[in-house]
Amino acid sequence: MTPTEYDYIVIGAGSAGCAVAARLSERPELQVLVLEAGGPDAQQEIHVPAAFPHLFKTALDWDYMTVPQAGLNGRREFNPRGKMLGGSSSMNAMIFMRGNPNDYNRWAEMGNRGWAYQDLLPYFRKTQHQERGECAHHGVNGPINIANLRDPNPLSLAFVEAATQAGYAPNDDFNDGEQTGFGLYQVTQKNGLRCSAAGGYLHPALARENLTAITHAHVTELLIEDGRCVGVAYMHDGQPQQVRARREVILSGGSINSPQVLLLSGIGPAEHLRQHGIEVKLDLPGVGQNLQDHMFVPVAYHCTQPVSLADATSPEQGARFQNEQMGMLTSNIGEAGGFIDLGIDGSPEIQFHFGPSWFIHHGAGNPAGHGYTLLPGVVRPHSTGSVTLNSADPFDKALVDPNYYGDPHDMELMKQSVAAAFAIAEQPAFAPYRGERHLPGPDVTTPEALENFIRDYTMTIYHPVGTCKMGHDALSVVDDTLKVHGIAGLRVADASIMPIIINGNSNIPTMVIGEKCADMILQELDAAGQARDMVAASASAAE
């Protein structure tokens, strides 16, 4: 029988939640519960790197669509999010990226103590086992294995060479403090298989008797009594359940689900809550605000040689993967990329992903045959949006409004990124492979047509952040210890706490947020224990 009380309850077994739960459960005296709305991470497509797009729009995907976006010519944009153990780390492109040191220094400059890059570097090192070995920037023996691509595609190698021919510097380590330049990406893989937060953190930790994980547990409400979060209500197997926390609840649902849970629990903008008939427990205006995301667009070419990932599912490639953990199925699809610093925002504003395959509308718009896709994108966006309730039904999806291109700055940067993609694509390194350009099409010949193309084909890079902003201003939701302002016993630990989006892939930084959250909890626990010991010692001495 499942206990009805734990020391700590973690909501969401995603990138941060797995890290929080694993680290807290290292203390055998603590009882830790993880509630995950999705199921186990057993499906084969999770672990075969190149298969992750096959998880889109399945039971393992929250399958969000944005509200119609004026900046996308009225389109709704698909926003997949992992709904399983490991969360989105079980269905992402496995790119190992931290962002720029200046990103975190900005957080600290906003008054968030302990969040500068040098503060976080020990956690970045702690998360990883870097197969290249230990150094000042990289750690070993951590839960997340970091590897070079096992079998990089010749098209990816051509892309890196073409970027250098276009005048960009080579870069073989985007995570040593210097981002600019182009190269092959490292990946969160081990022996050719995905290394997710579930695989690295959670599954080993579940061998401990003090850690419990319940899947298919959909949280419906936080239990708030006298200004304190004392537990969680959730649905499991069609039955309502409640569980109480002796110490704290840690909300790690992600940048869409975390604000939704807070809003459903009466924590958020009071007027919005009243509109949906929800009792206001705390008027916290910033909940669901400050949504930020990265965008990219496809610059795609037909390939004149049969070397793209179009053949990844062939029997030959299947045998190579099965027998050697090599071949196309080890590809993360976004094999290469790079950063361009325009000197505008203090860290590179443009990031490239390169796929040795078609990647148009998340794969749903791919033509037949062999092709490759340059994906330039804006990673210092100025546009912000929101996550709000559609209704008070906890099973009704939230309304996601990233407000893509709401700030004209982002469109201007995207135009520059596409121009850079054209320059790279026309370099000699691509000559053996370059067929007809598929996108943008031949009708895109004017600045107006280019802008319309961008609006029609922009995709999210799957990095929503910021909706439970960390800070001390009127729109902040948590403080720099990740405690929710005005509610005791409740923290948020996931990408939603980022006050400003980092300029790179967000998965590893989200794990670091989980690591730091657990560390802060344990430090406070130890400090409280030491204080009690001192009081007891003083009382004993007085006697």
What helical percentage do the residues reach?
25-40%
* CATH class assignment of the largest domain: Alpha Beta
CATH architectural designation of the largest domain: 3-Layer(bba) Sandwich
Q: Rough shape?
A: globular
Class per helix and strand makeup: alpha+beta
Number of domains: 2
Detailed description of the structure:
The protein is α+β, with helices and mostly antiparallel strands. It has two domains: 1-145 and 186-292 and 386-404 and 463-543, 3-Layer(bba) Sandwich (FAD/NAD(P)-binding domain); 150-184 and 295-380 and 421-457, Cholesterol Oxidase, domain 2. It contains twelve helices and 26 strands. The chain has helices at residues 15-24, 44-47, 101-109, 117-127, 154-165, 197-205, 254-264, 270-275, 315-324, 408-425, 447-457, 507-542; strands at residues 5-11, 32-35, 64-65, 78-79, 128-130, 144-146, 181-184, 189-190, 193-194, 211-214, 217-225, 228-236, 239-251, 267-268, 282-283, 289-291, 295-296, 299-303, 336-340, 350-355, 371-378, 385-388, 399-401, 434-439, 459-460, 490-492. The strands form seven sheets. Strands 7, 17, 18, 19, 20, 21, 24 and 25 form an eight-stranded antiparallel β-sheet that branches. Strands 1, 2, 10, 11, 12, 13 and 26 form a seven-stranded mixed β-sheet that branches. The longest helix is centred in the last third of the chain and has 36 residues, at 507-542. The chain starts with a strand and ends with a helix. GO terms for molecular function: choline dehydrogenase activity. It is an enzyme of class 1 (oxidoreductase). Belongs to the GMC oxidoreductase family. Its cofactor is FAD.
